[in-house]
Design goal:
2 domains, three-stranded antiparallel β-sheet, elongated
Amino acid sequence: MMSDSNVVRRGLLRAGALLWCVLTTIPAAAVDKNTVVALVTDKAMVKIDGKQRLLSKGKTSPEGVRLITADAKGAVLEVGGKRESY
């Protein structure tokens, strides 16, 4: 028979694992609209679901949007594993 502390510990571990799974999958799925506001070499000001983010090349926003490349002509963003040019 398991002690009460072991039951609580197991429950917390399961809850933590579930929370981690939810938090790591929501950002990429939750992005509805991206708008590139400004471009410079290797940086882009992007509006993601209404929030402005300054992204540097190779960096990922809290919403899960990653800047692949940027220059004065355009930017390539990766959202949920798919790349789109802007």
